[in-house]
Amino acid sequence: MTILVAYATTYGATGGIAEHIARELTAAGHDAEARPAAAVKDVSGCSAVVVGGAVFAGRWHRDARAFVRRHHDALRARPVWLFSSGPLGTATHDKDGNDLVEASRPLDLAKHEQLTGARGSTVFFGALDPSRLNRAGRLMMRVPAAREVMIEGDFRDWPAIGAWARSIADELAPAS
Ligand SMILES: Cc1cc2nc3c(=O)[nH]c(=O)nc-3n(C[C@H](O)[C@H](O)[C@H](O)COP(=O)(O)O)c2cc1C
Fold first, then answer.
1. Is the pLDDT higher at 27 or at 150?
2. What are phi and psi of 50, to 5 degrees?
3. Which of 11, 32, 49, 173 has fewest C-beta within 10 Å?
4. Per the UniProt record, which residue ranges are transmembrane (predicted)?
């Protein structure tokens, strides 16, 4: 059975993380596939599910939230992990000394952990290309406080993403 890596992305960074996780799971001997969360109609054929979403204005991507709403009964019946693709930049702490990864954890992630009975969840650094922003994103860039944290670049930490995927592969029974 397949491990599904369902992702919710607006600009592509989270999709790239999901593809990387699926590749690592495959390399570890599992059958794994990354798909946009909005396109998944049924998870009954999946042995386990990883759900990932970008974070916008402190919230997990709406397609990730909708995916959990649609499938929470089926998700509770199988191993689930969640991730968000959030902060930008290379700093590990904000100017008040708060851990950036912890501060970037979407407030609604805990609720989705409960709904799915997730075995674990994590936050990965994301990516931002200002030339690709939609209207809402461009408007947000005009707000000085938002501009400070919307740092251009690709900050995805591939070794950390790979290590997390391998920890999932290790926790699941080896693929037969
Ligand atoms: C309009 C806008 C708002 C954002 N708000 C947050 C936020 O509240 N917290 C956060 O950690 N990252 C925030 N980000 C950074 C995105 O989560 C990051 O760029 C993410 O990797 C984008 O994923 P995607 O390319 O899959 O859409 C924001 C980015 C944009 C463009």
1. 27
2. -110, 130
3. 173
4. none
pLDDT in tens, 74-90: 999 999 999 999 999 99
Encode burial over 137-159: b for 16+ CB neighbours within 10 A, e otherwise.
beebeeeeeeeebbeeeebbeee
Architecture of the domain delimited by 2-169: 3-Layer(aba) Sandwich (3.40)
Nearest to 11 by CA among 103, 96, 85, 90: 85
Contact, 61 vs 86, CB < 8 A?
A: no
Q: What is the DSSP string of 103-116?
A: HTS-TTHHHHHHHH
Domain ranges in the chain are 2-169
**What ligand 1 atom has the least distance to the C-alpha of 55?**
17
Q: Is the CB of 84 under 6 A from ligand 1?
A: no
Query: Crossing angle for the helix pair 158-171 and 13-27, nearest 10 degrees?
Result: 50
13 lines ligand 1 (CB under 6 A): yes
Residue of the CA atom closest to atom 22 of ligand 1? 54
